[in-house]
Amino acid sequence: MTTPYTCFVDMAAEVEPPENGTLSRMLHQDERLKVVLFGFSAGQELSEHTASVPAILHFLQGEAAITLGQDTVSAQAGTWIHMPANLKHSIRAKTPLTMLLLLLK
Length: 105
Description:
This protein is mostly beta strands and about 100 residues long.
C-alpha cells in the first residue's frame, strides 16, 4: 500500500552539494506540482532561463546571487522567492548551496 502523502523530515539532508558541479533530485511530481532539490558547489551557476509555469525557490543552506528580471538579490538559508511564469532568472552559488524548486503546474 502506498501512502497518500510525501514527507521529508530534513529536506537539506536529501542532497549533498557536490565538490564540483550541480546535482538535482526530483522529490515529488504530480499533475499540479513538481519538486526538485538542487545542490550546487560554490561558484556553480544556472545561466539565465525562464520557466513556463510559476515557480518558488526556497533556499535551505548556503548563499547565492539570484537575478530576477533586471534585479539581483542575495539569497541565504531561509530565503523564499515566488516567480511568475516566463520571468528571466539565473542562480549563482557563492558557497555550497542547497535549494528547493517548486514548479506550480
